[in-house]
Amino acid sequence: MNRKTLVTILLPVIVTTLVAIVAFGKCNGKGSWQKDTGFIFGTSYNITYLCPDNHKADIEKVLHDIDSSLSPFNEQSVITAVNNSDGSGVIVTKLLEDVITEAGKVYRDTHGAFDITVAPLVNAWGFGFKNGSMPSDTQIDSLRAFVGYDKITLSKGTLTKADPHVMLDCGAIAKGFAVDKVAEMLSSKGITDYMVEIGGEIVCRGKNPTGDKWQIGVTRPDDDSLSIDNELQTILALTDVAMATSGNYRNFYYRNGKKYAHTIDPHTGRPVQHNILSATVLAPTCMQADAYATSFMVLGLEEAQKILARHPEMMAYFIYTDAKGDYSVWHSPQMKKYITTD
What we know:
alpha+beta; eight-stranded antiparallel beta sheet; four-stranded antiparallel beta sheet; 9 helices; about 30% helix
């Protein structure tokens, strides 16, 4: 499963409109283009919106509330209380409850490829919120006993665990959820033109400062743990949609000449070895796009295509290696209208 934890800096997407935004002032009499940036969940956020007033304080409150509920690196967060509990029951916030509920739906739809209880394995491989390093086969088999969404129960706002060793890591869905909540806040204030981006997960509405759709670049998935190259594979023209990208080319390490990437398969307990290098998903919500982008990295191309066939509301853009080891691209047919260059 893709770790994508709240402190992981994954930037598989480049928001190509950000530089242009600075140059524009008032637009269509609605106010000025506001641009708020900052650092949250161990990554950056960039939020641009057309409004007479600045709402950075409101944005940061939304992000702080989510961090207090969902960050396993925050010792005072609700999810930390869950992870440290003996399993008898912890009262959770509505924010955490919503994420856990959605995670359960994706877990069932993907037959366990997406599983927020994979935390013990992610930690063991050194990609989680606890230190680990190259677990043995025996350790992996032992930890798998504590992994499985069916080992948690959420009832009337209280979460119980089948075993104290069960732990949650919502990093593969939380950033998308945070993007959705910030977008909801902006919409509630009557703002119709905006782009919200947190660590590469995006929601865009209306028009950009030039009056066009938002131009969002998808980077070529070259091994680049420092996010230096950022060569674009394609550019998408988007509006009124959410987008998330998952890839194994930002967070990885080599040991004895072998690459170990952060996407852990809950079924095997090991990093995935599929040929998908990056999965970009468009969906009605960023939480959905985020979770399925991770799921597709676990499932591989053929199984991902089967799921997409069941979900006409979603589309995806996959970059993968073919039989010759060369980069290839597959995307949902309906996604063609968004692609400006390929």
